[in-house]
Amino acid sequence: MLYLSTRGHPDRKHFCDILLEGLAPDGGLYLPAHYPQIDDAALTRLRKAYHEQGYAELAFQILSLYIDDIPAADLKALCAKTYTAAVFGTGEIVPLRHLEDGLWLEALSNGPTLAFKDMAMQLLGNLFEYELKRRGEELNILGATSGDTGSAAEHAMRGKEGVRVFMTSPHGRMSAFQQAQMFSLQDENIHNIAIEGVFDDCQDIVKAVSNDLDFKRQYKIGTVNSINWARLLAQVVYYFAGYIQATETNDQKVSFTVPSGNFGNICAGHVARCMGLPIARLVVATNENDVLDEFFRTGVYRVRGSADTHETSSPSMDISKASNFERFIFDLLGRNGQRTKALFSAALQTYGRFDLSADPLFADAAAKYGFESGKSTHADRLTTIKDTYHRFGVTIDTHTADGVKVAREHRGDPAVPMIVLETALPIKFAETIQEALGHVPERPAKFAGIEALPKRVQVMPADVERVKAYIERHCQ
Ligand SMILES: *Cc1c(COP(=O)(O)O)cnc(C)c1O
Known about the structure:
The chain is an alpha/beta fold and about 475 residues long. About 45% of the residues lie in helices and about 15% in strands. It has a domain at about 95-115 and about 230-435: Rossmann fold (3-Layer(aba) Sandwich), CATH 3.40.50. The chain contains 21 helices and 15 strands. The mean pLDDT is about 95. The structure holds pyridoxal-5'-phosphate. Pyridoxal-5'-phosphate binds next to helix 12.
């Protein structure tokens, strides 16, 4: 399998070459040159693999379709090491839970940091360690986080050989629980840098360091952001696992509703559907930051400025632009790299928007790719959390609540199960749960008292040179 850029660059690369890279050289995102097709017999084999050998085997078989430069036995071992009941809480790894007629929750948030990002990041940690060792190289991951991504990355990379993590976060702006999840890590290869500023300051620092190409090369700076293809690929697996659990035969279909921000999670659903997994509809659920809902309703993609980006009670979906969206647009445009480039590098740079409303390809987006969308507000989240708790005794987090609210509005054919992806556990967003239910959510035993653990964090002004000096000092 070879990979290409969404902006038409002529290079073709293998999986391990793009694993450690961010964007393609032309600024595009990597995608496989084609989507391997799963026919009826292959789907039956995957069904059997999941039921008889478990999630790790399912992951191995799907990943094998996309990775031809890691020996099969090694890839199998990496999957087996990643997807264990010890790390993800259950043997099913992503168990389905029935809510009401035709509506299911797929649990993706029982990993180490209680958010779905662990599903991909845990695999990424093992892939990075494997590939760096094979090359005899090192990598220093520099990132900016306002919560979930940073802690998932740190928990995936902790103790890994050949990898260091330098994670910036806005000082004093994460919840006590989120701070504890990151700052309590005592691993020597994990460095928390609390910046005296807001999240945008952290992102600006990361950009400035990455733009210093000499520094970047000398200190082997890399990232783990959501545009990494390996993360997306790892996420494809749980769409198959959800489908297999919800159906008995391959002639059945299911739909998914996905709480969305950067379009990474649901883009994996798009890939699964393009492979032939019988998915009827993919429903994008946004919060008040409705860039994606606006696009699927109107055909206009309009990036927001920071003044128009709302701080909400589902903060991991508070985005101004959806960094993975270019992958879907590339497919929607019939994989036309020149057109994709014109939209994302010219139109968005100049006008902050593009408009496909008059394009017949956009009119096809729902019919051909199954996409629909909806949005949810703070009031909707409170109502949905309350209602789900009182009717089913189930406490859902604020992001999942956005999903459940939108899913109910898009149920469609009652014979087609609607699976909502649960993207975090409620304990991460205790304040809003308290507001909705009058009590804080239950805390998994292993997180008891983490706020009181000793913290390993360096507080710093929002100064690029200081951050660079810190990295230099800790790369010896
Ligand atoms: C990251 C995240 C999302 C959004 O996922 P995208 O891949 O950015 O669309 C939703 N919910 C939670 C809890 C998250 O951490």
